[in-house]
Design brief:
Number of strands: 41
Length: 643
């Protein structure tokens, strides 16, 4: 059966193998390759068809036909604007389709006066169909709390992705979330042109935005939509799936309250306090009272506060992806107690406030300026990016290296940035202007790591030619090269006083060397690791050196005696990054398994484990006030965490 796409056709059904509609004579194959099989849906803005791609062995696809409302068609200016926005939306859908839980856009075009989108066909049921099937089977509890948690954890990353690209869906509801039959993953559908037109064109005609009952009040009143608007609709969707009752019947307009908890109570159904708190915050009436990002909602859903550790080291790490609104847990401080503190006395967990996605390849290094204003990142995409630490906004991109940028360091006054690259050069930049001040080029071995001493006068680079090279930062004049490592130098760090430089060797060396900065004499060789020393830092008083290694261990050394003082509990994967908080009581470590551990220093007790990166953590940096932690990863992102 072939379906005619002419909206005026009186009998659109046609037999197979015909080229033109038997009723109205309209050509049936779009672009001679797409043919509609059956009508899938119809609304105020167009129609959707199940279709086939003739050129791809009749592979299934979806045809979306845009039919502007009569009041738009009758006004030339509005119709032209509608067509312009349709083209813009098609471009957005093309970009969004890279995400595996958003249908891929195959084509967009105009034919016979109508606009079309051709999209991936998702084989499966939407959540409303699932709900109705459960009701038909006689289930007393449509969806359990655990199932709702799984739905949220599956769909929130999709919203995080589209919101990061400036797209608001505007119509989140059970019908627009499909469960793909092949893998069970949830797919967000219906990114129709109505979402673009509603706010800028069709609102003038009085057309409602979103679906009543699911849409937030700001959409229905003024046509405005924010990421929090999509999150509101997702919360209402959860309420519908939990109760099996239409949303309008669960809202009391007299006092602005949702009655879903009462409905569950009538049925003797209980859900977890965390899930309940998350749903309550999703559906708060005022935009400012809701979650402002999908990442915040996801983090609260995954959040568990740390257990009370017994005295001493170790204990089970706590998975924390962001902080939580205390109201989401029914009290001030959630489940841990009245003050929400862990056994370490740290009252507030860390919260991921920004995920920065500007780099196109692995992000290798991060550094924060001393005024807590600027975050700098470097990547294998050959660029250095400057970000505003508070807002996460991109301030600028520095280009000048011809190969991967391997390391960065910021001077203590926050004015000078040094960057090292596999092009065997080090560039010195002025952070405020982005100007390249000088280039230290033609190094015998490319720089792998950089450090600037506390007075801002000496730049140290650990290099591939087994040396540590020192320069006067102001003039760029070389001071000396330090030799002794048997292989390339993976890490360097100055002590807080600046009198000691520590360097860590790679797998064929496995030693830490301590150097007197004034005399440049070798003070000690520290042996104990069984693999590359990937990162080094000092305690706040400079008495201890802390190292992490590909042997999965963190070791604490006496800087004066050159002996191991302690070893933290061994980890599950290579350790690649360390950072000490300015107060010296928290050590952050980043691992190849994509996690960040926050340790109480010097006891070695794990306080929290942050699990938001999807690739190895490559670098960590605390802000000067200790309230912000930045992390970089192979997943091409930088995350900004705050207490």
């Amino acid at each position: 059966m072939i379906y005619c796409l002419n909206p005026q056709c009186q009998n659109p059904h046609n037999t197979d193998n015909v080229q033109f509609c038997l009723t109205c004579g309209t050509r049936l194959n779009l672009k001679n390759r797409y043919r509609a099989i059956s009508l899938l849906g119809e609304g105020g803005f167009g129609r959707t068809f199940v279709a086939e791609n003739i050129d791809r062995l009749n592979a299934p696809c979806v045809i979306k036909q845009f039919l502007p409302l009569p009041q738009v068609q009758q006004k030339r200016g509005l119709l032209e604007k509608a067509m312009e926005l349709f083209a813009q939306e098609a471009q957005q859908l093309l970009q969004l389709g890279d995400f595996p839980q958003i249908p891929t856009l195959f084509a967009d075009f105009e034919e016979d006066g109508y606009l079309y989108l051709i999209q991936e066909f998702i084989d499966g049921q939407n959540l409303l169909e699932e709900l109705e099937a459960r009701r038909d089977s006689g289930k007393s509890h449509p969806y359990s709390g655990k199932e709702i948690e799984e739905i949220l954890l599956d769909i929130l990353p999709v919203l995080e992705y589209i919101h990061s690209r400036g797209v608001i869906h505007r119509d989140i509801k059970p019908e627009n979330i499909m469960r793909r039959q092949s893998d069970g993953k949830l797919v967000l559908i219906d990114f129709g042109v109505a979402k673009q037109l509603s706010g800028s064109v069709l609102i003038k005609t009085g057309t409602k935005i979103g679906t009543e009952g699911y849409a937030a009040i700001e959409q229905l009143r003024g046509g405005k939509a924010f990421p929090a608007s999509d999150l509101y609709s997702l919360g209402v969707t959860c309420i519908h799936l939990l109760t099996g009752i239409e949303p309008d019947k669960l809202y009391n307009p007299m006092n602005g309250r949702w009655l879903w908890r009462e409905e569950l109570s009538k049925k003797g159904i209980e859900i977890g306090a965390v899930l309940g708190g998350v749903i309550d915050k999703l559906v708060r009436e005022w935009v400012s009272d809701r979650y402002q990002s999908a990442s915040d909602a996801k983090a609260d859903l995954l959040r568990t506060l740390p257990p009370q550790f017994p005295p001493g080291k170790g204990g089970t790490p706590t998975t924390i992806q962001t902080g939580a609104d205390p109201q989401a847990y029914g009290g001030q401080g959630g489940r841990q107690g009245s003050n929400g503190s862990s056994s370490s006395g740290i009252a507030t967990p860390w919260k991921c406030v920004h995920t920065l996605t500007g780099h196109s390849s692995y992000v290798i290094g991060v550094a924060i300026s001393s005024d807590n204003q600027t975050l700098v990142s470097c990547s294998y995409d050959k660029t250095i990016k400057l970000w505003h630490l508070g807002s996460g906004n991109l301030l600028g991109t520095l280009t000048g290296h011809s190969r991967w940028v391997s390391c960065i360091a910021i001077s203590p006054n926050g004015q000078i940035l040094a960057s090292g690259s596999l092009d065997s050069s080090i560039n010195i930049w002025h952070i405020g202007t982005g100007n390249l001040l000088r280039e230290l080029s033609d190094l015998p071995g490319y720089p792998i790591c950089l450090a600037i001493n506390p007075s801002g006068t000496i730049l140290a680079a650990g290099c591939f030619d087994h040396t540590i090279r020192l320069w006067d930062l102001d003039s760029g004049q070389p001071i000396r090269q330090l030799v002794g490592h048997a292989s390339y130098v993976e890490s360097v760090a100055f002590s807080p006083s600046g009198n000691i430089l520590a360097s860590g060797g790679s797998f064929d060396d496995r030693t830490i060397r301590l150097w007197d900065v004034e005399t440049l004499d070798l003070l000690a060789v520290l042996k104990g690791h069984n693999a590359s020393i990937r990162s080094l830092t000092f305690s706040s008083d400079g008495r201890q050196v802390v190292s992490c290694s590909e042997d999965k261990s963190i070791k604490v050394w006496d800087a004066s005696a050159g002996e191991i003082i302690d070893s933290f509990p061994k980890q599950n994967a290579w350790l690649q990054a360390l950072a000490m908080s300015p107060s010296g009581d928290i050590l952050a470590s980043g691992s190849r398994d994509s996690t960040i551990n926050l340790w109480q220093f010097p006891t070695g007790q794990i306080l929290y484990t942050l699990k938001w990166h999807s690739g190895a953590v490559t670098s960590l940096a605390f802000s000067a006030d200790g309230k912000t932690l930045a992390s970089s990863s192979w997943d091409k992102t930088i995350k900004i965490w705050q207490v």
